[in-house]
Amino acid sequence: MSRLRLLLYPFSLIYGLVTYIRNWLYDLNLLRSYEIPVKSIVIGNLSMGGTGKTPHAQYLAKLLKDELSTALLSRGYNRSTKGVIEVKPEHSALEVGDEPLLYKRNFRDEVTVVVAEKREAGVKFILNEHPETSLIILDDAFQHRAVKAGFNILLTEFKRPYFKDFVVPAGNLREWRCGKDRADVLIVTKCPEDIAPETRKKYMRKLKF
Description:
It contains six helices and nine strands; from the N terminus they run αββαββααβαββββα. 32% of the residues are buried. It has helices at 3-27, 53-64, 93-96, 98-107, 119-129, 197-207; strands at residues 34-35, 39-45, 70-74, 85-86, 112-115, 135-139, 147-148, 151-157, 185-189. By secondary structure, the protein is an alpha/beta fold.
């Protein structure tokens, strides 16, 4: 750990404690979670930054859209707007965010795309405006405990795995590594093509999943 990150270590302990207590309250049902009433999949990670959530969300939508009436729900990072918005191809990235606009322009009318800071409001909007929806894919909502999805997919990058990281600001994790236990599936992204079997085994042991 660098000297700067070492200095930030006490702040990470405080932040980590806050997130731990918050998750604990959700686990005890002392904080309310809205249970999504249709099939739903969350794609997320423990760390800040990109681990491949966008291509994975897009892949799942492409895979399932012909079998299930599918919607993609995202926060819409770095957009200039607020609230719930159904994304249209003519929107700009400034209005709805880069990734949601990419989803919509790729899928057009095959997939409903909605942005909302509050995922519960976004889910209810989708089900109200598109009652035929039978699957909602939530992009980057692993820490959004105010909604409860039916299936949780956690991503971690091969070269920057959570087991080598620490909670912000000393590291890049949004919560303690034990948050991985909420996931149903763990996917290691951006892997090299030629991983030796023994290296793979050691890596899997370190994941502790």
